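=== RUN LOG ===
request id: a7f3
mode: sequence -> structure
chains: 1
length: 190
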Amino acid sequence: MDPDEQHLIARLRCGDKAAAVSLIEQMYQRIYCFLRRLTAHESDAADLTQRTFGRVWKALPTFAGKSSVASWIHGIAYHVYVDWRRVGRPFESRTDEWWMACSSPDPAPDEVAARADLAAQVYASVDQLEPDLRDTLHLHYYQGLTIDQTAEAMGVATSTVKYRRRQALMCLKRALEVPAIGSVTRGKLV
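=== RESULT ===
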């Protein structure tokens, strides 16, 4: 558990209403969406979300901090859902259309993996650039400095930073171009 969560839990245990509001603001929508996906009904999800937070307040004194607050609350929500199902709620099979309508706004796992692979390729290509170009990109893109701040940090003119950035991006574009399948030059795939 990180220090911010420890502080939040300590405030909650002392009865701090602002901490309770903060926790609900941070977690309510996530828990509701989780339960909405499980139940398929907005009213059931809303009811179970309320029950979840009721159990959170009751279980707060026993929270040991061995997990994050988010995983702890999600675990309570899941158990609230399981208990609700045991009461005799019939399981309804879902169509693909239904699942598509309930899709998460987060990228799909394959998209996350593809982005991570591309980011690794870009980062490796940046590291292969000559030092001035590489350092310019690191300061500007990875450290988030503006052109002026990058120029100041490197002790060069802003026009130099712009030129280096343009050169580096052209080099990266060439380095990251996908070769045509089956084109071979001197034993190398081109």
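=== NOTES ===
Residues 17-39 form the longest helix (23 residues).
The two ends are 49 Å apart (CA to CA).
=== END ===
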